[in-house]
Amino acid sequence: MSFQFVKKLPIPAEIKKQFPVSEKAAAIKAARDAEIKDVFTGASKKFLVIIGPCSADHEDSVMEYVRRLADVQKKVSDRLILIPRVYTSKPRTTGEGYKGMMHQPDPDKKPDALAGLIAIRKLHLRVIEETGLTSADEMLYPENYWYLVDLLSYVAIGARSVEDQHHRMTTSGMDVPAGMKNPTSGDLSVMLNSVVAAQTAHDFIYRGWEVSTNGNKLAHVILRGATNKYGNSIPNYHYEDLIRLLHMYDQRDLAYPAAIIDTNHSNSNKQYEEQTRIVKEVMTNRRVNPRLKELIKGVMVESYLEPGNQKPGCGEHIYGKSITDACLGWKESEELIYDIYNFCEA
């Protein structure tokens, strides 16, 4: 066999005991979870802005970013809920490249899964305790969700994972909103099928246990654009796309229909500067159509301290600049948040 079993890893309970959640942090998360849940159930008219680096690559720069975001949150709290993207596992199209902090807590050193599990838990804990915000992360590996279950307020299921049965069933046991992205093919029916599965109760095997779930009624869709057979990006954030999604939701008996618009990836053709324009188009569409205003609960934006991106290990590292997909810089991101705030005038 080509497998090499490097080391036995601690179970989630052991990592949690080593790095526990304080009473203060637990109270912050409970309050944030309730506030975010109210957006999806319709009890709150606030708008979600899920924003942050493509990947959480360095703890110091990620924390500086989130601290800045927390300062802005205080100014927009009557209309917006800012959820920092703290994505610690990075899906790779070809399997090559930096796979996130969980694999490599130091991008310049060799992978170390144990150090990575500790690093990502400590990072999410720091976000809560030092800023009063709670994070979003992508569930790339269902088995690893339990290491962070008591820390996250939002979970995304990626375009390459959304058709996987284990991801869908694990999502059905979550108590927080989970966004199911459309697959890279762009098939909206596949995406909605994943929401049906996530909202349904299941019995299955998880981490060596037979488990049962009640279904996650806060599961919803994320539109991230598509790629056709020629490799060309096809956006799906335009008015006609949103109306089509609305009609498809109408044909299904799903709890709390909701959509988040991912403004990067195939929606921007990875032209990160286009995210600002895309957000404004989405906000305009919400303004002109009351049903779209009800359906679209937020946007997802890739943003960091410095604009653009850089390749790891190639020259001097620029602090706060993405080593994966290119991101908006802080200046543009802060301005965009205030623009979204103004779009959300009562």
Give a written overview of the molecule.
Helices cover 37% and strands 15% of the residues. It has 346 residues and is α/β, with parallel strands linked by helices. It has a single domain, classed as TIM Barrel (Alpha-Beta Barrel). An eight-stranded parallel sheet has the order 2-1-12-11-8-5-4-3. A two-stranded antiparallel sheet has the order 6-7. It is globular. It starts with 11 loop residues before the first helix and ends with a helix. The mean pLDDT is 96.
Question: Over the alpha carbons, how many angstroms does the gyration radius reach?
Answer: 19 Å
Q: Termini, distance in Å?
A: 62 Å
Helix content: 25-40%
Strand content: 15-25%
Subunit arrangement of the protein: single chain
CATH class: Alpha Beta
Low-confidence stretches: none
Q: How are the strands ordered across the major sheet?
A: 2-1-12-11-8-5-4-3
Quick rundown:
The protein is of the alpha/beta class.
